[in-house]
Amino acid sequence: MMEKDKKKKGKKLVVGLIILGLILIAGGGVLTYFSSPSYVSKTVIKEFGQKATELMNSRIETGLEDNYKTTSNIKMNLKSDYFSALATMDPSYAMISNLLNNLSNTENNITMVQDKENKKLFFNLDSKLSGQSLINTKYLVENATAYYSIDGVTNTYVNNGNNNYFESLNSSTTTNENLKYLIEKIAESMANNLEESYLSESYTDEYKVITITLTEQNIVTYGNKIINDLKNDEKANQIMTGYNANFSEVKLTEKDVTGTGTIKVNIYLDKILSQVSQYELELGNGNKCIYYKENGKEIVELISEEETTTLEIEKHGEKTEINIKDGSNASLGTVTISQTSTNYDIVANITSEEATLDFGYNYQITNLKKGTSYDSAATITIKMTAQNTTIIDGTITVTSQTTNDTTISEDTSSSVLASTLSGTQTELLQQKIALIILSLMS
Fold first, then answer.
1. d(CA 152, CA 132)
2. Which DSSP symbol is given to 247?
3. φ, ψ of residue 145 in degrees (nearest 5)
4. DSSP 3-state of 284
């Protein structure tokens, strides 16, 4: 009896070991598949697509992203000791000095209206220099037709033909949602069309390296497959046609990529855990971009034949700090980015042997009544110095008011077709452009 029990136990043990062996073999197969060049590359592409859409979710939401009227005033205060000094010695530099001074004396008013429900868009730029009209131009989209007018050139609106901008928008979608959809579809198509012939794997002492190699011919083939996927996806095609009426004819050719050279993407995986430890982009001109994490920081290395620049990125809640270093690990400066629900701020202080740059950008929303109205102000400050001389110093300020009033009262009944414009009007347009340039540089 005991002998039979032993035999039964022996058989169970053998069966158990066989089952365990099959599980291990299957498990090993899954692990190999999960870390295969194809799986790793496609997973990385999709993850980058997801991260890109997540960044778009961090935008300030006002409820007036697609139906709004915004009136803006732009003021500039720019000067340059450097070009002013050069102008006294060489008259050819006077044009640049005059340009900065004249821009500071312009008054620029912009009106932008978008009525998504009625598929209307209106843009007006009215710019004056020292109180005299510099340019006043209008652009209008209604009934799937684009119109424009330029004061002093056209006596009425000019019918510029079909416009498909609003084909990509309807009552249930927004511009932001459409862009996110495009990113997702492009990432999906990039993953699905990644050929095995583009992929290879190699090993270092620490890593398994998956490499995506794209020659110029590969780029053409790969790019056209992605473009065709967008064309064949009804929603993606509709969105792209809204931005480019000729999207159905878009095709990548060898001429478009000539000179690009071979591009490589190297993905470094830890040999044991099969986790991605580093990304490396090699461009055809020999430049490289490397990304990895170290001591809680995100590191980006930009490498060229001339120099290496390293960005050390640290995130602290709503603030991101970027320390910039050169190839010898010496500090070149910092960039700080901060964001709240109503404020976006960038401050940069960059120093090199040749020059110093102080740059600031601030965008702030006030008096927000979501879906109804808000005020906003955007300010750019810039100061660049070299050898104790100010190359450029100044500010650009844009103050705006946005409301939900989407009324557009423009009369296009007497518009003329662009195809019927006479040579005289073409000459007038050329003269107008020349006059604007001359006025700003005199």
1. 13
2. G
3. -130, 140
4. coil
Mean pLDDT in order along the chain per 10 residues (442 residues): 50 52 43 63 81 70 88 95 86 85 93 92 94 92 91 87 74 72 92 93 88 94 95 90 84 92 90 80 89 90 89 90 91 92 92 90 94 96 92 96 94 87 74 84 84
Tell me the sheet residues that pair with 298: 293, 313
User: How many Å is the Cα radius of gyration of the chain?
Assistant: 29
Residues, the chain = 442
Q: Which residues contact 242 (CB under 8 A, 6 or more apart)?
A: 164, 165, 166, 167, 168, 169, 178
With a CB cutoff of 8 Å and minimum separation 6, the contacts of 162 are: 144, 145, 146, 245
Helices (H), 233-323: 234-243, 254-257
Q: How far, CA to CA in Å, does 97 sit from each of 85, 131, 147, 433, 441?
A: 9, 20, 36, 20, 8
List the Cα angle 86/92/94 in 5-degree steps: 60
Q: What is the DSSP string of 142-169?
A: ETTEEEEEETTT-SS-EEEEE--GGGG-
Token pair of 168, please?
A: 């990509």
Give the three-state DSSP class for 188.
Answer: helix
Among 311, 298, 304, 269, CA closest to 284: 304
What tokens does 329 get? Answer: 């690990």
Give the per-residue pLDDT at 30. 40
CB 209 within 8 Å of CB 35: no
Are 167 and 242 within 8 A, CB to CB?
A: yes
Kindly state the tokens that stand for 411: 């009369």
State the DSSP H helix or E strand holding residue 392, giving kind and residue range, or none if neither. Answer: strand 389-403
211, 196 in Cβ contact below 8 A?
Answer: no
d(CA 124, CA 115) in angstroms, rounded, equals 15
Token reading at 349: 């202080």
